[in-house]
Amino acid sequence: MILILLSSVFIIPVLMGWGKIMETVSGSLFGGISGKIFSGILLISLLWTTIAFFAPLNMYIEAPTVLMGLFCFFKYKLYQDLYRFSKKDCLLISIVSFIILFAGSFHPYILDHFGYYVPTIKWLTEYGMVKGISNLDFTLGQMSLWHIFQSGLSNFSDPFLRINTVLLIFYTLYSIEKKHWIHLCFLPILFLFSQSPSPDLPVIIFSLIILNEAIAGNKNTSLLFAFSVFVFAIKPTMMWLPVFIFLYSICILRSNFRKLLFGISVLIIFFVKNIWTFGYPVFPVAIAGPDIFWKPNPEVLKISSQYAIMKTYDMQYTYEEIQRFSTFDYIKNWFTLPGIKSKINILFIASLILFSVFAWIKKRKLITFICISLLIKSILVLMFSAQYRFFIDVFFVVFFVLFYKYFDKKKSIAVFSGLGLIIISILSFPGIIQTYIPSFRVGGFMGGLKKEQLYRPSTYEYRKFKSFNIGNLKFNVSENYPYNFDTPLPAISAGYIFDDMDAGIFPQLIDKNDPGKGFIWQKMASEHKKEGEKVIHIIKNTDK
Asked: Is the entire prediction scored with pTM above 0.70?
C-alpha cells in the first residue's frame, strides 16, 4: 500500500507534465490537475505505441519520459494547482485516496491478469510490439493501448502493475475538482478492477468523463472525438462512445470535418497496431485485413469464434448444441443461465428498455444520441459474443444519465461510504461472496487480507514451467497451470498448443535468432507432428 502511494506521488506529476506539453500543442479538454493528467495519459500512450513498433518499452524508454514529465511539472510550476483545493476538499481527497490505495493492494484475481495482461506487458517490455504475436498465443494479438501505457511505467515507476489504482485517484481528483459528485458513487464498484491493469477500468472512467463533459456543454470537438477514439482503441467494445461524440459534434455542435482529424489519426494508429500484431484492423474480427503473411490461420480464427459463442452461454453448451438452437432457445437459454450471469443479462436488457423509454420521454437530442449509440453497441455485442463483461459499461452510463442531477455531494459521499464498506469487506473476506454468490466464480480467486499488503501490494509468483522445441521455435509452457504470467518468454498457453495441433499447424519464428521479429504459422511436417505429440503427452501427464 505504501509502495503504491509512492508510485502515485511519482506518476501523477509526470502525467501532469506531459499533459502540459499536449495542452501547448492542441489545447485542453478541460482545465485543472485532472485535465492535465488526462491529456498526459493520451499523449504518452500514443507516443509509446509508436515507439513499441521499433523498440521494447524498457527502462531506456521510461526514464527519459519520466524525466521530461517531471521537468515540465516543475518548470511550469504545476504543483501550484494543488493549492486550489479547499481544506475540506483536501481532506476528502486524502480519505478517498487512502481507501483506493488499500483496495488496490489486494491480490489480483481477474483471470485475464494471468493469461493476458501480464504476458502482454512482458512482451512489450522485453521486445516491444511483436509482428504476428497472435500466431504464438492468440490472446496476445489484442495488445491494448492501456497495456502499452502500463508497460512503459512498469520498469521502475509502477513495477507492481497498479496503474489502475493511480487512475482511481485521478478520477477522484476529477470528481472533486469539477464538483461533479456523482462520480464518487462509481468508485467502490471500480475498486474491483484496481488490482490489475484491466482495460475495463480506464474505459469506464474515461467514457464517464467524456460523457460528463458533453452533457456539461464542452464544445472542444477535436479533443472530445480524439479521446473517445482513444477509449475505443483501449477496448473496441466501447465503440458507442466515438459514435455518440461523432453525432454530438456533427448534429449539435455543427463541427466541420477538420476537427475530427486528430481522432481519425488515433484510429489509424489503432488499426495499424492491430494489423501488426493480429493481421486485421480490429481484434478478434477477421474482416478487411490486408494481404500479409503473418495473418492467423483460418482454422484458429474459426475455433476462436466458436469459443466466443460458447462463452455467451457460459460454456454450458457445446458449439454444435448452440447451432441447433431455435431463435426462442437463443433468447431463453441466455436469460436462464445458472447463477448471477442470468440476472446480469436480464438487468442489461431491462436497463436498455428503461433508458430507451427515458430518451423517448425527454426528447433531447443529446440523450437520444446516447441511447442510439448504446443500442448500436448492444446489438453488435449480442450478435458476436453476449458476455456480461462486454456490456458492463452500459450500466454505468445509464445510471449516470438517469441520476446526473440527483446526486449532490452529501448523497454521493453517503453512497461511496456504504458501497465502499461492502466492497472492501468482500476484498478482505472473500468468503462472503463465495458463500452468498457462489456462481460469481472469480470470487474464488480473491486472496483476502494480508498484513504485508499494507507496505507492499500482494502479488503471485509461480515460476514452474517446462521448455520445448518444435521446428525453429523454442518455447516455454507453465507447468500444471493454464496461464503464463510468470513464465519466461516466449511462452505459449497449453490450450493454444492443443488448438494448433488440431489445426495441423504450429507457430514458427520469422527470424530463428530473434523472437522480437515476429511469428508466422506453418503446416506441421511429419517430424514436427512427432515433436508436438511428445509435447502434448508431457503436458497432459504433468497436469495429472
From this structure: yes
